[in-house]
Amino acid sequence: MFQKLLYYFKKVKRARRIKKLKKKIPPYLLKDFEVELNYKLWTTKGARFAASRRNQILHKLSGQCIGYLSAYLIIVGLVKVYGLNFWLLKLTDQQVNFTSMAFSVLILLFSQLENSENYILKSERYHNCALDIAELYNKLRFAKTYQNNNPNKETILLEISNDYDRILKKYENHIEIDYSRFQLQKPDYFGLDFFDRVFFKIEFYCRVQLRYHILIYGPLIIFITTNLYLLIF
After folding, report:
1. Which residues contact 49 (CB under 8 A, 6 or more apart)?
2. For labeling, which of 12, 50, 165, 202 is most exposed (least CB within 10 Å)?
3. CA dihedral in degrees (190, 195, 198, 199; nearest 10)?
4. What is the dihedral of CA 105, 91, 93, 78, to 10 degrees?
5. Which DSSP state fits 91?
6. Residue 84 backbone zone (phi > 0: left; psi -120 to 50: alpha; other: beta)
7. Quick check: 47 and 179 in contact, CB under 8 A?
8. What's the alpha-carbon Rg for the chain, to the nearest Å?
């Protein structure tokens, strides 16, 4: 359901932007190869830095999530040991045992899945990729500024383009949300209005942070909601 809703808003946003930019030719569509190469290096570099940051956030949230779930597991065990209640909620021994086992299985499964993602390694690789592309970008900017009359300029541009292709083959590609995060850094250049910026931020939260916040705060929200229900009714 969420994916369908997200796809619908993407279509609306894309149609609105196409209408707004219909009379504007983006730099990467110009026939000048040098301008196109400059644009590709600049945007890819920014997107890869954004991808590195995204994986850093995932790594941090992953650790926090495992820590919170482990704390919930310990608290449930302590409640059983000391014969306490969850405020107004009274659980039987069987219910406490089931809750403990459920948290144990959830932590085990979640830890395995998160460790297989290796977010910190991906972050480093994206960062290294961005640095490699940044070197080519600086080389291109130098050639544009100081070597306009150089008869070998075409060879230099071709060499930079080939190096760029080789770098891309070495690293995993970033995802669409990374490019959107980079666009948020230059909203005026990319023609982003208020709704575009809000949409990108919501999309980033839903695709990157939401599931961790559900696991971190979900049990606490359920606990408070249940007790408030018992208190009122």
Report:
1. 126, 127, 130, 182
2. 165
3. -80
4. 70
5. -
6. beta
7. yes
8. 25
pLDDT tens, per residue, the chain with 233 residues: 555 665 666 666 666 665 555 445 555 555 578 888 999 999 999 999 999 999 999 999 999 999 999 998 888 888 777 776 766 777 777 887 888 888 899 899 999 999 999 999 999 999 999 999 999 999 999 988 887 777 888 899 999 999 999 999 999 999 999 999 999 999 998 889 999 999 999 999 999 999 999 999 998 898 888 878 877 87
Terminal CA-CA length for the chain: 33
Q: What is the DSSP letter of 86?
A: B
Identity of the amino acid at 37: L
At 89 the three-state DSSP class reads: strand
Q: Evaluate whether 147 touches 156 at the Cβ level (below 8 Å).
A: yes
d(CA 198, CA 209): 16
Residue 137 burial by Cβ neighbours in a 10 Å radius (0-12, 13-18, 19+): buried
* Polymer length of the chain: 233
Identify the helix (H) or strand (E) that includes residue 85. none
Kindly state the tokens that stand for 75. Answer: 């608290």
Per-residue b/e over 16-26, b at no fewer than 16 CB within 10 Å?
Answer: eeeeeeeeeee
Q: What token pair was written down for 4?
A: 């369908």
DSSP assignment letter at 174:
P
pTM of the model: 0.82
Measure the CA–CA gap between 199 and 180, rounded to whole angstroms: 10
CA distance 9 to 3: 10
